[in-house]
Specification:
four-stranded mixed beta sheet
């Protein structure tokens, strides 16, 4: 978890937006309206460089220090909890989509922990919010050729260089959704460590629609006409995500649902949805945004109980890219929802456009571990998730305020 001084509430976010001299009053209206309706709460985290006002001229050192803080905090914890030494790790996979540094990010970790020279390391970039399950899939395939091995997957994102300072609305949205976060996972195919396992990977299916131009362009890193860089999010992203998810589940579900449910669905699909709960106990959805969670929930016939972990993760931590799934899973664990033998459907989306999904089985009844939710889980779900700044910032939607200039807005926030 990031330090308190990097928390980014709506008011602080609006002050950062007010520093952007390129925006007109309509742009401010759009951004504030999007922020207060995003589903994010008041305790998400932001890179230090953006808090300090350096978002328009990002430095490599800021990006590297941001992700290294996540690397070493999460890895220190995983080594301490598992009692496994860094020298025992055989495979290391790091996924950070928006930063490809030299030396590689895996090399930085290997150097920091003095890992073995024969460690198999893989550095994945450009894979989007779905990269964590791609990393898990890579490890799964490596395990087929290498027996009794220990692997670590590190999933995070570099946001320091991605704060958008331009005026394209499809690129502004990334400022309202993406936040800092990350996690590390320990995996093994050594049967001698079976009793230490919390989850077992049952199956994983990857779907990539990159051959379709519409899907390829709906979510991508790009520059606007002024050269400002950000993640572009198309209006049709929800539609593309639904298409990718449908293709993926067509392959995945027959592996986990009982035959009788598949037959029933095929016979009556014109009048009913497939009942996922005949073979799945929990649903771990990528907390990419409120609209995506709503769309997936409606398409899969999920109720508010099923969607709560994803909604609360978005509210507390924002969209932390590939790490988001594991915050959702940690919420389920902190709420003591998971029981031995339960099956968890993990659903992720990523640029490309990709949908990578898998099934985990809970392997233990001993789930009293503390995690990132430990100091706040009793407060979730909150009684109200309405943004507290909705009323304070409502003036910005008033057409009578059209005379207000961006400079006026900047002065208002400077005095707050």
């Amino acid at each position: 978890m990031a330090p308190k001084e990097r928390k980014l509430d709506t008011h602080q976010c609006a002050k950062i937006v007010s520093r952007n001299k390129n925006l007109c009053i309509e742009d401010h209206r759009f951004l504030v309206r999007t922020m207060v309706n995003s589903g994010l709460g008041e305790e998400t985290y932001c890179p230090k460089s953006i808090i300090m006002g350096e978002e328009e001229h990002p430095k490599l050192v800021d990006s590297v220090s941001e992700i290294e803080a996540v690397f070493y905090d999460t890895l220190d914890r995983i080594f301490a909890r598992s009692k496994i030494l860094p020298s025992q790790v055989d495979i290391l996979v790091v996924n950070v989509s928006l930063l490809s540094a030299v030396p590689s990010l895996t090399s930085r970790i290997i150097n920091h922990y003095n890992m073995r020279s024969d460690i198999k390391s893989f550095n994945l970039s450009g894979m989007g919010c779905s990269a964590s399950l791609i990393s898990v899939d890579l490890v799964q395939h490596l395990f087929k050729a290498h027996k009794k091995k220990i692997a670590i997957v590190v999933s995070t994102e570099s946001m320091s260089s991605q704060w958008y300072s331009g005026r394209e609305r499809s690129m502004m949205i990334s400022n309202c959704l993406f936040r800092v976060g990350g996690c590390s996972m320990l995996l093994t195919n050594d049967s001698a460590r079976k009793n230490q396992a919390i989850l077992k990977l049952k199956c994983l299916v990857r779907t990539n629609l990159a051959s379709d131009d519409e899907a390829f362009h709906c979510c991508k890193q790009s520059e606007d006409a002024q050269g400002y860089k950000a993640i572009y999010l198309s209006k049709i992203l929800k539609t593309i995500a639904a298409r990718a998810l449908t293709k993926n589940l067509t392959v995945l579900l027959p592996k986990v649902l009982p035959l009788w449910e598949i037959i029933r669905y095929l016979l009556f699909k014109s009048s009913s949805k497939i009942n996922l709960k005949t073979g799945i106990n929990h649903f771990c959805l990528h907390p990419g945004g409120r609209a995506v969670i709503d769309e997936v929930g409606e398409n899969l016939g999920l109720n508010e109980y099923d969607l709560e972990p994803a909604r609360m993760t978005l509210h507390r931590f924002g969209n932390t890219s590939s790490a988001g799934l594991w915050y959702v899973l940690a919420y389920m664990e902190a709420k003591k929802r998971l029981k031995k033998g339960d099956r968890i459907l993990m659903i992720s989306f990523g640029a490309g456009f990709k949908s990578n999904n898998c099934i985990w089985e809970v392997m233990t009844s001993d789930l009293d571990r503390t995690n990132v939710w430990k100091d706040m889980i009793e407060n979730y779900p909150p009684k109200m998730t309405i943004n507290p700044y909705l009323e304070k910032l409502g003036w910005i939607n008033d057409k009578a305020m059209d005379f207000v200039t961006p400079e006026d807005i900047s002065k208002m926030f400077a005095r707050c």
